[in-house]
Structure formats: structure tokens, C-alpha cells
Amino acid sequence: MEIVSPGSRKQDRTLKPMVLAEAGVPHFWRVELIGFREQLPGERPPVVFAHMLSDAAYALVMRAGAGTVVTLPGPIPLSVDPGGLLLR
């Protein structure tokens, strides 16, 4: 799981997934803590993006924002409301 930080956004969104895909890591989860360009209307951060390796690159298989409980696919299925990832 990669948590995107303001100082490393480009690296967290492009370089790290590419390196992990090249290494054959089958699952990659990315967490966006604050607003971002691709945010959908009504979607509240944090947003979790679940990717699975397909043909040597990651394919998005699920995305969920705060207030939505989802079960993320992966080697260890995880049910989570992304809003619970933030400290209050």
C-alpha cells in the first residue's frame, strides 16, 4: 500500500507502481489523502485505489472514497472504509 504525500506525488503515482509491476508484485494499493485531479464528484478523501497486475502493468480494479466500506482484493482481502484511515 502506498500513501501519496504532497512531496512525492509523481513518484508515488508513476515510478513506484512501474517498479513494483516490473518486479511482478501482483497487487498495488494507493491511498490519496487529499483532493486530486481525478477525484469524482461527491467522492471524499481519502480514496483507496486497488490495482492488480495484468500483462506487466497495473489495472485498476476498485476505488473507494471515505464513507464507503469495501473489500479490497488481494492476497489478504481487507474490508475498510477509507475514512477510517485518518486519525481524528
UniProtKB/TrEMBL annotation:
InterPro entries documented for this protein: Nuclease_put_TT1808 (IPR012296)
**Top-level division of the source organism's lineage:** Bacteria
What's the protein called, per UniProt?
Answer: Restriction endonuclease
